[in-house]
Structure prediction request, 204 residues.
Amino acid sequence: MTEPKMPESPFDQVAGDLISIAVQLGAAGAAVIAVDRIVIEDRLASLCREPQCENFGLSASCPPHVPGPARFRQWMKASKGAVFFKIEVPSDSLFSDDRREIMGLLHDIAAQIEQHAIEQGHVNSKAFAGGSCKMIFCREQPNCAVLANGKCRNPAIARPSMSGFGVNVGKLIEACGWGNGDLQNGGAGKHGSFAALYGLILIG
Ligand code: SF4
Prediction:
């Protein structure tokens, strides 16, 4: 006799779509993660301040302008699950003129997954990427528009960095079985001649 199937939760119903969307947009891998697999460490967030990242304080998406690990833990408690994804690029490209475009793609995928989750009724979903949106999207601008007047120039694409919230990216990589490679500051991992960059979306 076959076991009766448990009805899918609203999160389960949307999770498969979110993975497909991530891959369609260019992710090399994407996985659904239980919220309790996300490890938040205050000491990781404090690395933005000491030793100070060159982007510290430049945008509303980085410390000290983000609410940090304590708030992230609250968001986790209110979330039904999470999607973690990676993009893979030639390592050399991160040190080339292509870097901004690559980082922009990372933010774009994260933001689009968040938007799809919101459209499916998970209205408190939140996306996180890596790197400074000031350096990626507003490099030629004198300031972050949010800090200057409260309105982001790139609200559809720019997302905060996981670093400022103390997300242990290495633990997420392990949880996905992707291998840790040589994880570096900012969530980029080297895998031979390729580097991986990561994004996370809390589905709330
Ligand atoms: S205005 Fe520019 S620097 Fe400020 S949050 Fe938006 S994208 Fe980032």
